[in-house]
Design brief:
This protein is mainly alpha-helical and about 180 residues long. Helix content is about 45%, strand content about 5%. The chain is built from nine helices and two strands, in the order αααααββαααα. A hairpin with a 4-residue loop joins strand 1 and strand 2. The radius of gyration is 20 Å and the shape is globular. About 10% of the residues are buried.
Length: about 180
């Protein structure tokens, strides 16, 4: 995906999808966050074709999510180590696990997130760092940031106007409307 419209191109959601939204990229990051670093580990775990894995690792490295490090000089072998930017993707993976377990596993969860020390299952939630209050569609919205273009400001104003003018039969929809939709 190459965003063509300025408001879409500057949207953090669109930028993230551009970088990691492809199926294999997310699964590679999932495995890396569990400790995988080597090409053969990713390939064995995912069953991905070597050429596809090489392309995805190259893209993720160029995007700053991995650092490629030589671990064996002859023959040359590299590992892919998560950068701070790559490790920052963990909450996305945790949210995907929670969502999948809650909504896509009618037969029950095949894996759950758990505390490392105790193995006690946990239920992840997103909270505001300052107040520690849960971040939900009912408690947050999006507003223009300091670098928002005029197009982005217009888009957000349109969303705000739509929300304010929403007829009462759309009241239930307002609760889920966060301004994140495109």
């Amino acid at each position: 995906m190459q965003p063509k419209l300025v408001p879409l191109a500057e949207c953090p959601c669109a930028r993230t999808v551009e970088t990691v939204g492809e199926w294999w990229s997310i699964l590679i990051l999932r495995d890396a966050l569990q400790g995988f670093t080597r090409f053969d580990e990713f390939q064995r775990s995912l069953g991905i074709a070597p050429n596809m894995l090489a392309r995805r690792l190259k893209h993720l490295t160029e995007s700053g999510l991995f650092e490629r490090r030589l671990y064996q000089p002859r023959p040359q072998r590299y590992e892919y180590v998560l950068t701070a930017k790559g490790r920052d993707f963990f909450p996305v993976i945790a949210a995907m696990v929670a969502f999948g377990n809650r909504h896509l596993a009618p037969e029950g969860a095949a894996l759950v997130l758990a505390e490392r020390e105790t193995a006690r299952p946990i239920e992840p939630i997103m909270v505001d760092a300052a107040s520690l209050r849960p971040v939900t569609p009912e408690t947050v919205t999006v507003v223009a940031g300091p670098r928002a273009s005029p197009g982005m400001r217009q888009r957000l104003a349109t969303i705000a106007t739509m929300r304010a003018a929403a007829p009462s039969h759309r009241a239930g929809c307002e609760k889920v409307g966060t301004g994140f939709s495109h």
